[in-house]
Hints:
alpha/beta, Rossmann fold, ten-stranded mixed sheet, two-stranded antiparallel sheet, flat, ATP-dependent DNA damage sensor activity, P-loop_NTPase, RecA family profile 1 domain-containing protein
Amino acid sequence: MTDLLSILPSFPVGTFSDLLAKVEKKDLSTADLLAQHPVDIAKQTRLPVLDLRRFIAAIQASLADDVAVEELDLGARRGRDGGGGGGGDDIEEEEEEEEEERQKAKKMESQSMKTSPAWTTSRISTLDDRLDAALGGGIPHGCITEFAGESGAGKTQFLLSLCLAVQLEPPRGTGRQAVYISTEGGLATQRLTQMLDANKSLFHDDDDDDDDDDDDDDEHDDDEDEKKKKKQKQKQKQKQKETKKKKKPWLDNIHATVTQDLESQEHILEYQVPVLLARHPVGLVVLDSVASNYRAEFHRSAAVGRGADMAARGADLVRLGALLRLLARRHGVAVVVANQVADRFHESVLPTPVVVVDPSSSSSSSSSSSSSVVVRQPQGSSPLASRTAVAAAALPSSSSLSMPLPPSADARPAATPVALRLHHQQRWFTGWGDDPHALLDPAKTPSLGLVWSTQIACRVVLLKRSVYAPPRPRTLHDADSDDDAEDTAPAQTTWRRWMKVVFAPHAPASGQGLDACTEFEVTNRGLKAVEADTTHLAATAS
């Protein structure tokens, strides 16, 4: 911080003397203070974040004042060089021009902060009418949309389709570019090229109509005026063709990058993406996937410090959600993220001991010392609950207790109602567990927990089930030999996939079960909805 006074001699050092002393110990220059985030500086110097924000704001204000003073000095010098009393008029004119430019800039900022009506009504298509109808017309702008599902469910296929569809003109897209941020691998350019070659709806060629117009003009070639008009029409048609070629979706309109860790991800989203959105007409920001870096950075172990890690992860998730929402609203873009899932265990599998206090302890205070504490296991529990039984055996008996139980031990509050438990409520916002008749439905939970669920506006779950072929009938040869037992077993033939809207501000949620979901398949051209077929639901298995 020794360069602060050399850069800003008029900076009020006395008001920030305490901060300067600690900042100088860390050898932070003025450029470091302006480039780094106040939270990162606070971690290094252990100073309050609010004080650092005020300190940095004062430096920025001092720099702005020095720039304004230099501009006024330059204007005065120009007026003196021009001679006469015209110098003052030139300075006044320059000041008026600066005020006009500032007013225009303020108007532009106010307009950019306000969401455009076209952005609120327009949607990004999935290139399939039935899928768009289930999504309320497509993916909305100005909010965060999440696609959650297990591996192979089709999350990346949806994201790639949106990267191409956003480049189309309304109503399928917005005619803008896309930003693809990947955390696990690079952009699948071969798959995008395959979709471009196979999907005819991405192209709008009107060459036949142009040829018909040319044939109609051949009859009037004798007159010079008609020839001139024909040349002008041909030039206009060529320009239209060139503009149409530019508007067609292409890989050059997709800005892709890869983030290997959480630090680079935060830096790209906070600094580089806003600059890219300001310079290029971007309508879609994709993050694939949001949980990958958090799984690597934060470990949910039983070691000491687990609570602090989860608290830090929750704070980072809240910060990430606020940053993505700010980008979506300020620039009018659609933010779409992919999320992974984890297995969910039923309550009957988890070891939950039930503590029962002998009611005879309420008769008198003396009898409370001889009351027994009984630990029971719930019926139907799994072998994993044996650890609870060992812990119960380690409890001291009633005779070994040094202190008697309090008289109010029998007046303990009742257990939490089932309707208020997270295990019961998460079925309505995770996408799994809402159908009580789905015996073959393996319950899953989107990663990053309840904290991340409160940061998104729309959640779409992708389900997949394996389809098995009927078993081959056994023959006499199979009865003699036991080696062909695997050949007669049912074999997996393909996968079936469904799309389910869990919650969204612009579309109704899907009903319970797979019948209310929209089934789709992955083809060369992208995603395609298929007709509902309930006859094969019994043949599907997890």
